[in-house]
Prior knowledge:
The protein is built from three helices and no strands. By secondary structure, it is an all-alpha fold. The chain is elongated, with a radius of gyration of 24 Å. The N and C termini lie far apart (60 Å). The mean pLDDT is 75.
Amino acid sequence: NVDDQYLPASRxxxxxxxxxxxxxxxxxxxxxxxxxxxxxxxxAASIREMSQSGALSxxxxxxxxxxxxxxxxxxxxxxxxxxxxDVDEDNESIVDEDKPD
Length: 101
């Protein structure tokens, strides 16, 4: 803001330190996503524990693990962690040195 340049430095830093509504909303959304991620990871740990103790049948374990995987994938997509935009280094073309070009 042009008017900010005429404020004392201490006043400018106070204004910059106060997040605007969009920043607060983005922070709340990010906290919500991290809470959901934490819940999904707790669910995965719970499934593992119940599976190891024999409390779940194989069918129940598969169903719950599948549901947890879908939830995690959806959360990762919301967080921008989907792998569609990432370059997979394992898929780089490999040149066979024994073959002539």
